[in-house]
Design goal:
Blueprint (H helix, E strand, L loop, with lengths): L9 H4 L1 E2 L5 H6 L12 H4 L4 H14 L3 E3 L7 H7 L4 H22 L8 E6 L8 H11 L1 H17 L4 E7 L2 H11 L6 E6 L14 H13 L4 E7 L3 H13 L2 H7 L3 E6 L5 H5 L4 H6 L12 H12 L4 E4 L5 H11 L15 H10 L18 H4 L6
Parallel strand pairs: 1-8, 2-3, 3-4, 4-5, 5-6, 6-7, 7-8
The structure holds zinc ion.
Length: 387
C-alpha cells in the first residue's frame, strides 16, 4: 500500500465529487434513450427539474463538486438525431446543463455555497474507444475538434460553471485538443482520462500514467490552468495502478509541487460482458444488462476510494454505478458531519430515492446495453446497487 501522499488530514485535503447522474435521473423518471442517452433530460424541458433534484441529492450526500449533465451533448450523437440544427443545439443544451447544476446549488441554500460546479467536457466521439476517437480526429480534423471543445467550454461558463472537467478522455491526443481549445477561457481545467489508459487495440495500460502526468506538467508550464489530473470510469484496480505508477515514478511529488491535484472516480459496474464483446455496442446488446460488481456495492467501493486517497488522490468520487449512497458514505468517513451539514438542502424525493435504489437491488434495468457507461451515459443508467 502506498503511504499517504499528504501530511494534513484527509478531511482537510479531499474534495468529494459526485457519482453517476444518468441512472439516478432514470430512476427519477427520465426515459431511457439509446440515441440521446442522458441528453434526453436536457432536450425535453419537462425533465429539467429531475436533473436539478439529482444534483441536489449529491450535494446533500456531501459532494463538494458536482458535474454538469451534458456528457452526451457531443457532435457524434447530436448530428445523428438532430440532422438540421445539431450544431446550434450543442451550446444551447450545454448551457442549460450548467444552469441546472447552478440551480441545484442555489436551492441547497447558503450551506452549499462552497459547492463547485464542474462543467463537463465529454469525449468528442465515443467513450472507451480510443480507436474510434483517433479515427474521428483524423477524419474531422483537429481544428473542428478544438472548435467543439471551445464552444462547449464557453457555453458551460456562460451557464455558470466554476471550472471545466474533461472526463473519460480516450487518449492524450483528445486531452491535448481539450487543453488547446479551453486553456484561455479563464477557468481552471481538470483533465481526467479513462483510467485504464487503453491503447487503440483497447488493452489496458495504466502503467503509462506517468507519461500522461509528464505531458500535463508540460502543459501547465506552458500556461494551461490545469488544476487536476484525473483517472475515471475504469475498474478501481486500473485506477489504483495508474495512481501507484505516478507515485513510484516521482510524478506525484512533481504534480503536487506544480499544484496539480490527482482525481479518481472509478466505474463500479461489472464490465466483463463489455470486455467480452470487444467494446462493440451492437454485440454488447446481446451480452446482457450491466450490473454493479458485487464487491463494489456500498462500502466495497468506498474502501477503494480510501485506497485512491492513500495513493495520492485528493479529489474522489464515483463514476458509472456509483450513487448518492456511496458518496454519502465517503463523505461521512472523511468529514465530521457535526461541523459540516446541509440541513437546508432537501431535494424533493431524495428520501424516497434511497429506498428505490435499494428496492432495485440487483434488478438490472437496462436492456439497451451500450458501453457508453460513463457517468451520464446510458450504462450509467444500467447499474443496480446494493441495499
Ligand atoms: Zn463512468
Amino acid at each position: 500500500m502506498m503511504p499517504s501522499a499528504f501530511e494534513m488530514s484527509e478531511r482537510d485535503q479531499v474534495g468529494v465529487m459526485d457519482g453517476s447522474m444518468g441512472r439516478l435521473c432514470m430512476i427519477k423518471g427520465i426515459p431511457e434513450d439509446d440515441k440521446l442517452w442522458s441528453a434526453r433530460g436536457l432536450v425535453e424541458e419537462q425533465y429539467h427539474p429531475i436533473i436539478v433534484e439529482a444534483h441536489m441529492e449529491y450535494i446533500q450526500a456531501g459532494s463538494m463538486m458536482i458535474t454538469t449533465n451534458n456528457y452526451a451533448v457531443q457532435p457524434n450523437y447530436y448530428r445523428r438525431v438532430f440532422k438540421e440544427d445539431w450544431e446550434a443545439r450543442i451550446p444551447q443544451d450545454t448551457e442549460v446543463a450548467a444552469r441546472l447544476a447552478v440551480e441545484a446549488r442555489t436551492r441547497c441554500g447558503p450551506a452549499a455555497a462552497a459547492v463547485r460546479v464542474l462543467g463537463c467536457l465529454p469525449p468528442i466521439c465515443e467513450s472507451h474507444r480510443p480507436d474510434l476517437t483517433a479515427q474521428f480526429i483524423r477524419e474531422e480534423g483537429e481544428e473542428a475538434c478544438r472548435r467543439f471543445y471551445r464552444t462547449i467550454g464557453e457555453a458551460l461558463l456562460r451557464g455558470g460553471a466554476d471550472a471545466l472537467l474533461a472526463e473519460t478522455l480516450n487518449s492524450w491526443e483528445e486531452a491535448r485538443l481539450v487543453i488547446e481549445a479551453t486553456k484561455d477561457l479563464g477557468a481552471p481545467l481538470l483533465i481526467a482520462l479513462e483510467g485504464a489508459l487503453r491503447c487503440e487495440r483497447l488493452k489496458p495500460q495504466p502503467h503509462l500514467a506517468p507519461e500522461i502526468a509528464e505531458r500535463v506538467l508540460e502543459a501547465k508550464t506552458q500556461g494551461a490552468p490545469i488544476e487536476a489530473l484525473g483517472f475515471n470510469c475504469a475498474p478501481p484496480e486500473d485506477i489504483f495502478k495508474a495512481l501507484e505508477a505516478i507515485e513510484v515514478s516521482g510524478h506525484g511529488e512533481r504534480l503536487r509541487q506544480a499544484n496539480i491535484r490527482l482525481a479518481a472516480y472509478a466505474n463500479c459496474n461489472d464490465r466483463k460482458a463489455v470486455h467480452d464483446a470487444g467494446f462493440d455496442v451492437q454485440k454488447f446488446v446481446t451480452a446482457g444488462p450491466i450490473r454493479v460488481r458485487e464487491d463494489l456495492k456500498g462500502s466495497g467501493y468506498v474502501q477503494w476510494c480510501h485506497e485512491f486517497i492513500r495513493a495520492g488522490a485528493s479529489y474522489c468520487g464515483g463514476c458509472c454505478g456509483c450513487t448518492p449512497v456511496e458518496i454519502q458514505e465517503l463523505s461521512h468517513t472523511l468529514l465530521d458531519m457535526d461541523h459540516w451539514s446541509l440541513g437546508t438542502c432537501s431535494a424533493p424525493g431524495a428520501q424516497d430515492n434511497g429506498e428505490k435504489l435499494r428496492a432495485e437491488n440487483d434488478a438490472s434495468v437496462s436492456t439497451v446495453a451500450s458501453d457508453n457507461d460513463t457517468r451520464s451515459g446510458l450504462g450509467g443508467l444500467a447499474f443496480s446497487r446494493a441495499g
